[in-house]
Amino acid sequence: MTVLVTGGAGYIGSHAALALLDGGRDVVVLDNLTQGHRWAVPAGAAFVEGDCGDEDLVRRIIDEHDVTAIMHFAGSIIVPDSVIYPLEYYRNNTVNSRALLQAAVDSGIRHFIFSSTAGVYGEPNATPINEDFALKPISPYGTSKMMTEKMLADAAIAHDFNYVALRYFNVAGADPKGRAGQTSRKATHLIKIASQTATGVRPQMAIYGEDYQTPDGTCIRDYIHVSDLANAHVLALEYLERGGESDVMNCGYGRGFSVREVIGAVKKVSGVDFSVDLAERRPGDPQSLVAGADRIREKLGWVPVHDDLEVIVRHALDWEQSLKTREVNAA
Ligand SMILES: NC(=O)c1ccc[n+]([C@@H]2O[C@H](COP(=O)([O-])OP(=O)(O)OC[C@H]3O[C@@H](n4cnc5c(N)ncnc54)[C@H](O)[C@@H]3O)[C@@H](O)[C@H]2O)c1
Ligand SMILES: O=c1ccn([C@@H]2O[C@H](COP(=O)(O)OP(=O)(O)O[C@H]3O[C@H](CO)[C@H](O)[C@H](O)[C@H]3O)[C@@H](O)[C@H]2O)c(=O)[nH]1
């Protein structure tokens, strides 16, 4: 009765592994460490270094660890890179997911939870965004995730398993106990970048576009604390184990903050008035993405506990400080 967590050496997967272990479950992490770190895999989880697209390896792990469910976080995540290297994104996010799914079906896995994204909606012209909105991704990243959702839907009809695809909005923050956080080598996320600037890792940062049709001209996003998101995965697994129907669910709080509001929160919480430039719009940025967040609450009984931008920012800043100490100690 073990959960296989692909990508569990990365940001969200390591938090989900912690949440599973905290709940008394056994966990085996499969990660190829292209982005993740061995030290990020929580103590208490078994670890296998390898690729989630390696069907033989996955079948062996399922067999050896008595795996009954899979949480699939492994993937490539940088939207602009997906525009430059689309085939690489389809390979890692779609082709490797297909292989993982094949191994899961072959081995009789009954429950599957997939990391999808708000990126599958593209640029909807209404907000909040509900799960039944049309899927019109505007990047290869979003399309690669949408294709995996479609594979899951078809495979769950043909084979004996149920699944939940969780469509994350903007994930941020870190484990409140300081056990995990975002360590990505190539950070692009707003709260991570602002936290790095506040803690002196970066000299300054930029706002990408101030001419959007929003109250302060900057883009609006729905920021969800990574530990609330990790908990949603545990609840999704329990739901599937109860025999819940396969479904897709948005993961967000249903409330948006502008880029300026986020930077203001980081300055306030850190007490550092760092330098912020104004830059051109970043290509492909939708103006406003806010989750319609009722379904996950109703179906999973999910009740977020860190639904507060300043709490998210506090945890992100604490993690950034701890990374600096870790680097000093490692040097
Ligand atoms: N971070 C976000 O805001 C966000 C938003 C929406 C969706 N997601 C999705 O959530 C998942 C996790 O994202 P994250 O932010 O933790 O990213 P991350 O880069 O920190 O973690 C991904 C992990 O997967 C591993 N990996 C990549 N390809 C692999 C492969 N083929 N086989 C085995 N391991 C592999 C990497 O080494 C890394 O440890 C991704 O699928 C991503 O698309 C993230
Ligand atoms: O230095 C920065 C970084 C970001 N931004 C702005 O902050 C907002 C949020 O940007 P992020 O990069 O933090 O997040 P995205 O909304 O672009 O992307 C997130 O949501 C996507 C779905 O919409 C994908 O799931 C993706 O993986 C996930 O990071 C955007 O308006 C962006 O232009 C800045 O102004 N300056």
UniProtKB/TrEMBL annotation:
Highest taxon of the lineage: Bacteria
NAD-dependent epimerase/dehydratase domain residues: 3-252
The keyword NAD is annotated on this UniProt entry: yes
Keyword tags: Carbohydrate metabolism, Isomerase, NAD
E.C. code: 5.1.3.2
Catalytic activity, as annotated: UDP-alpha-D-glucose = UDP-alpha-D-galactose
Cofactor: NAD(+)
Pathway: Carbohydrate metabolism; galactose metabolism
A Pfam family: Epimerase
Subunit structure, as described in the record: Homodimer.
Assigned protein family: Belongs to the NAD(P)-dependent epimerase/dehydratase family.
Protein name as it appears in the record: UDP-glucose 4-epimerase
Record organism: Thalassospira povalilytica
Organism placement in taxonomy: Bacteria, Pseudomonadati, Pseudomonadota, Alphaproteobacteria, Rhodospirillales
